[in-house]
Automatic annotation (TrEMBL), chain A:
One of its GO terms (cellular component) is plasma membrane. It comes from Planotetraspora kaengkrachanensis. The chain crosses the membrane at residues 47-65, 95-117, 124-144, 164-184, 205-232, 244-264, 271-288, 294-312. GO terms for molecular function: transmembrane transporter activity. The lineage of its organism: Bacteria, Bacillati, Actinomycetota, Actinomycetes, Streptosporangiales. This is ABC transporter permease. It is a multi-pass membrane protein. Keywords: Cell membrane, Membrane, Transmembrane, Transmembrane helix. InterPro entries: ABC_transp_permease. It is found in: Cell membrane.
TrEMBL record, chain B:
This is Sugar ABC transporter permease. It comes from Planotetraspora kaengkrachanensis. One of its GO terms (cellular component) is plasma membrane. The keyword Ribosomal protein does not apply. Keywords: Cell membrane, Membrane, Transmembrane, Transmembrane helix. The chain crosses the membrane at residues 98-120, 127-147, 167-185, 216-238, 244-265, 272-291, 297-317.
From TrEMBL, chain C:
InterPro entries: AAA+_ATPase, ABC_carbohydrate_import_ATPase, ABC_transporter-like_ATP-bd, ABC_transporter-like_CS, P-loop_NTPase. It comes from Planotetraspora kaengkrachanensis. Residues 8-233, 248-487 form the ABC transporter domain. Keywords: ATP-binding, Cell membrane, Membrane, Nucleotide-binding, Repeat, Sugar transport, Translocase, Transport. Signal peptide: none annotated. Pfam families: ABC_tran. It comes from the Bacteria. This is ABC transporter ATP-binding protein. One of its GO terms (molecular function) is ATP hydrolysis activity.
Amino acid sequence: MTAVRARDWPKVDRSLLVLVGVLAALVLANGVIDQGFLSAAQLRNTLLVTVPLALIAGGQTLCMLTGGIDLSVAMTATAAAYVTGVRAADGTALAILEGLAVGLVIGLVNGVAIAVFRVNALIMTLGMSAILTGLLTVGSQTFLKGATRMPEFVRELGGGTIVGPIPWNLLVWLLLGGLLIFGLRRTGLGRLIYAIGGNRRAARLAGVRVASVEVAVYVACALLAAVAGILIGGRGGSVDLQLAGSYLLPSVAAAVIGGTSILGGSGGYTGTILGALILSVLDTMLNVLNVDEAVKQVLYGTIVLVLAWVYIRTSRARTGDR
Amino acid sequence: MQATTMAATGSMARRQAWTGATLLAFLLLVAVKAQSGGFDSFEIQTMVTSTLALGYLTLAQGVIVIGGGIDLSVGAQMVLFNCLSARLMEGRSFGTCLLIAAGATLAGALLGALTGLVIARSGVPDIIVTLATGFVWSGLALFVLPTPGGGTALEFQTLVLGSGTEFWPPLVGLAVPGLIIWYVLRRTSAGLGIYALGSDRQAAFLAGVPALRAQVTAYAIGGLLCALGGLAATAFTGGGDPRATAGMTATLTSVAAVVLGGIALTGGVGGLLGPVVAVWSLYLIPAIMLARGVDPAYGEAVKGVVIVLVVLIGGLLRRNGRKT
Amino acid sequence: MGETREALRTRAVAKRYGPVVALRSVDLSVRPGEIHALLGANGAGKSTLVKILTGVLAPDSGEIEVGGRPVAFRSPADARRHGVTPVFQDPALLPDLTVAENLRLTGTGAADVLERLREMDLTPPDFRTPAGELPLPLLRMLDLARALAHRPALLVLDEITAALPSDYAERVFAVMRRTREAGGSVLFITHRLLEVQEVCDRATVLRDGRDVDTHVVAEGGEDRIVAAMLGDKAVGAVPAAGSTAARPTGEKLLEVTDLGDGGRLKDVSFALHAGEVLGVVALEGQGQDELFELLAGDRRAASGEVAVRGRRLAGRHPREAVRHGVALVPSDRQEALLPMRSVRENLALPLSGRRWGPIRLNEERRKVGAVIERLEIDTRAQDEVRRLSGGNQQKVAIGRWLVGGFDVLLCFDLTRGIDVGTKHQIYALLRSIAEDGRGVLMFTSELREVPMVCDRALVMYGGRVAGELPAAEADEGMLLNAAHGLTRAEEVG
Amino acid sequence: GGGDTTTPGGAATGQGQQQSSFVIGVSNTLVGNGWREEMICSVKAESLASGKVSKVIVANRNGGPTEQIADLRQLISQGVNAIIVNPSDPDKLNPVIKQAKDRGIVVVAVDQAVSAPEALVVANDQVAYGRLGGEWLAKTLEGKGNVVEMRGIAGAPADNDRHKGFTEALSKYPDIKIVKEVFTGWDYSKGGQQALDLLNSSTAVDGIWTSGIDYTVVNAFKTLGKPYAPVVGADNNEFINQIKSVDGFTGAAVTNPAAIGGVGTAVALDALSGEQVPRETFLTPEVWDLATSKDKLDANYFPDREATFSARVTVEPHTSYTPEQLFACKGPGE
Ligand SMILES: Nc1ncnc2c1ncn2[C@@H]1O[C@H](COP(=O)(O)OP(=O)(O)OP(=O)(O)O)[C@@H](O)[C@H]1O
Ligand SMILES: Nc1ncnc2c1ncn2[C@@H]1O[C@H](COP(=O)(O)OP(=O)(O)OP(=O)(O)O)[C@@H](O)[C@H]1O
Ligand SMILES: [Mg+2]
Ligand SMILES: [Mg+2]
């Protein structure tokens, strides 16, 4: 019974390698389907479309790690982008700040309701989604009436290119994504997020203020969604009320494919990034393949299922569970 | 001995308290509705028939959640069976329609069983399997019926929905399967196994519950109910509609109704009456707002607030109940 | 040898969990009409063997015979049908189902279970109560009664007495003896060697996944068992428990005045001094749970107050207690551990809780490493704490506070389910904590520990402190009397 | 059935009412869609401008025929005189429309048609929408090239009609190939993303026809730094802006006015006043491009309105409200 020294970093997860393999295979398959795919332009395109999803899924990962979920991310992204668009006249910086403030408020409300008043996360965020839909619909006719064109800076950020295959939004992602990875692995808050998801009661007894951590998580999630919404709006140039609706399910799927447990306590952002990349490449593949919508949906579902299964298989082989 | 009996009665009361609260909330809503816009048999018929499909989906979701799972594909399954039955029933006689309905129900159970099997065998979490199968079922629905259409026999519609302003047939149509499944859940060992599985998977296994069988059973019941939901939609609208959005909305509503009706999302707890009543309550909220002339855009927001508040208050009551 | 057909026999049973070898090769035989002890240090593989014998796990290799016939159980139900009925280390009743439903689940007759409970001289609970609402010891007894109702040929009890107060443990022994008289066999796992002496006929000792010794208990003795269990490693000597002085001298670390929770706990007053290990003894349900929860800030006081070094604790959140240097090690590991996280993260939790910002990796590595070494935590399965054996999990739960720092350590039945070697380590640890000028308040259900570790002992009865006595004078008989409320505080002085 | 109960304020008194006392009900099943919200506003604006309406009751929630049938029945119970419905299905509402008719309620299906003979239909001609856009595209490409068809929601009737018109138009141009066909789900950001994917693929794209998901598609060219190809879209505010002001881009807006709600209201009020109205009113879309209809583009661009605002705000001669009344989105008594 020799005491092994505690390691700083977890072993490189074999299941992550499998995800990388799956991603590579998908990219190759795309290359076979369409030669245009293996180009710098396409790399840039892939990054461009993945970044917002990866950001929203990052927030989703945080919530899921605590054992929660945020079904209001799509509407949060939309609301933040809408406000930024409508307030473009206030000046770019202020408009962006106002958009982020929307995210902050939504996150706070979600977080306080879930952490302090113990409303079920699924219900709370579903309700929040309905509330935002209602408010935005009314708002678009009244207090949020106006042109919804994004400021030039935001357009550049959402769709512009720094150099070669590197879009500006990648910079945003590197910054926030890096912060997420670092935050989850190397900060006290990150540890506490895992702790809460792993065993809420134990965390509490160990002196962790569970509620504050949870509020922080939902605020971070909403802020990430707000940033993503603003980027999506920037890419499209203008904003509408359904802006980010299609990002909800993929945000959950990316996290789960990337190995984050829906029950909380295990997973991480690296996996989610791979999950998001896989989903975008898959999406591109299905867009480029000229197949029937019916076939497309069946394919999409099947592939997501198979991916999740492969992931589980490999992570089990590692731990030797039955 | 006296004390333990009292404790047990207390805990029984607590277990039924949620269903009671849901019922009370529902009756309150009915009263408000009756006051602001009338609640005659025409209204009741509207309520019961238009929520029939959703009612089945909620029962399906309820059984699955009690068994410790969650099914994000119930809406898609409903859409699939709606399209399938509408396509097959178009222009057929009443008898043939009944046969098709029976076949669809069976197919639904099989589809559900398959889902359960995949979940149990693959070890992939329920939520992701059903997210994926949801896409598959929506795709199949489009394949079966590329555009809205299809049809059904008038007698079939009358059988399911009743004629005139009757509202008993759909009520019976919901209650009979509901009661049968309630009996299966509460009074048979298979049903007990489902509760056990949802309560604590590991302990259930140690207690000798055949986990695979319980899980497959729960999903099979769910699939069967989703097929009934699809058939109800066919009867109600007289045709099929392959658009996936309706399915997703229905799925989310079923989850909300299950929680509002007192089933814990962690599994193992709750009954079936609460969720059905919750579906009706969710129907009444916009109806009341319509009658009161509330801007429907706010209506959506109000509905969100109401759902959150109900769960909040319910949670507080539950917590206080536990302390004493 | 082999003249009678064995109730159970295993040959070269082996099992590994991925890279972790839990069982290398175990040969075990249990005779009909015998109570057979299965012993071993934490992580020796006892629970794994039980799981294999009862169909929860399939062995990687090896053979199992029951009643002379080879078997390969597919599930616990299958094992039960063959007469092998377990009571597992962790409760197996489903918390959300009522007792009646739980019984129905395993096809057990409720009348039969009632009968068994009466035989054990227990008041049966209302069977309509959800199992989750019953106290843990009663649940364990229900688990046992349920197993008995199946009239097992071989009853397998994995650390059943660990969670039981001594009066309940006595009843379990009675059951075991009755089973033996009826010709059945019992495989009994425990870390309390006294219990082995008291009820067992033979004992098999596992070490590192092998059976290293099987002997007739009457011929062996505790030393032989301990030697077999630990191999070359010697049991560390416990430094003699504090002074014989009845009154402690150090500064008052923790002062409790007229504390009550509005329920079971009433008017509890005492003080814990620096350099002292203060024991709390009580039978099941005398308010000790509430007292510890209150002190740890997990429950609000209805009356009275708690002060740490003279500063009052409001008791709103455990964090407040932790901040003031009061740390709790709960008895239930489910309440202490983050099962999916690594040993390191579990140990470093108090550090993470203190600062949300970047972790000081070097400091953390140093502190965690030191504690792992000091407690000799078996880190073979360190990536996920849930894969550690029960005893090692317990060490992690204590080790956390050695990393985090504290002034007052609240230990609730700390040594439950811990092997002799480790127990002695922990006793020594508690003593050294006291010597550093800190304080320990420990509840124990094992009365023998009081004179070994404590300076003083409080006896709780009916939610009050019924007595206080110097540990050196406390023998088990005296404590038991006090704990039953037979002695009033005044008499003890 | 169901016509045997009389509801207070019901149609029994409906026909002979005086000015300013009609109650109009609206049923819509897509919430948060800018076009649909504007349609509801046009009902309110027209009701206000007509001076014949005392109240507008709106039933608006996400759903399909099931929800809509329930909503229509709710409106019937509320005793409305006319219902303006944007139908979620051409056939499934027929029974409830009949029930309404039995109670003397005027039902007008707007935007899309219903098959019930009892209902009046005021719709944009969706087949023509597809055909006109397709013809413009083919002419602009001079009869040859690869085009992409970006459709709406699979299974939606309007999507099918437009597809029909579009393919019909292109069938006359054998050298034009439809190389890709995708469903945008009428979702602007998703459509933009799909455009990125398609433009990046190795297939050459000479022109894009969209079922109204337009401005994000135009933006995709800019994002990728590719030369613009002609794009057909709808009369979305931002798209009109792009046609007018983006250098090197040619596009055409095919009108699909949300003001159809106002048209439907006008028709319903005519019917309530006892006038003879045709069962079907079809609005033929107009095609606006910079070369031929610069004036229309200039007159129908509202820099202060949202990107998805349907720019053709009035439909003469049917509607009587002013653009300001539409922008205010207030019904009588609000
Ligand atoms: N779908 C349904 N439709 C109509 N009635 C129902 C339905 N489901 C349940 N019921 C009735 O409502 C009653 C309460 O149901 P519920 O499922 O909440 O009970 P339960 O808590 O499971 O019961 P018990 O505690 O007796 O096991 C049942 O007695 C049953 O008769
Ligand atoms: N699921 C698992 N995955 C990986 N390793 C495991 C698992 N379960 C047990 N182990 C390892 O197997 C070894 C034997 O564990 P087991 O639980 O059988 O010990 P034990 O003798 O019962 O100990 P204790 O007295 O502490 O309960 C330990 O090293 C433990 O870490
Ligand atoms: Mg119940
Ligand atoms: Mg063990």
